[in-house]
UniProtKB/TrEMBL annotation:
Natural source organism: Bacteroides fluxus YIT 12057
BP GO annotations: DNA transposition
GO molecular function: DNA binding; transposase activity
Organism superkingdom: Bacteria
Protein name: Transposase
Keywords (A to Z) from UniProt: Coiled coil
Coiled-coil regions, chain positions: 72-99
Amino acid sequence: MIPIRKHYSEEDKLSLLRSYYQSGMSKRSFCHHHGICGITLLNRWLQKYDYLSEQLSLPSEPASTAMPNRSKEEYKEENAQLKKRIKELEKALSFSKLETEARDLLITRAEEYFNIPIRKKSGAK
């Protein structure tokens, strides 16, 4: 399925950038939350409208906490997604290790059965 490219007007871009500056969200979370196709697009807008960054963002205030303005639910959701991704990667890694072991065993058995060297010698040219 080919993703549909959305066209953003200048007003939309500036409004989204203002929201981004005020949200305190990560670029990835902000893009996901607002349906922006990717971080690269947001980065292009940030570069293009860099000269307006002071006007778009909130006036600086002393930070009461070191954490951005994100709710506990957002942190829990992101944490759950990261844990799920870790499990998927661990499963893929273990499957890859099993494939490698099976291939090595197959080569070893073929070398013994046919009495020919299959593996490449390390010093061969």
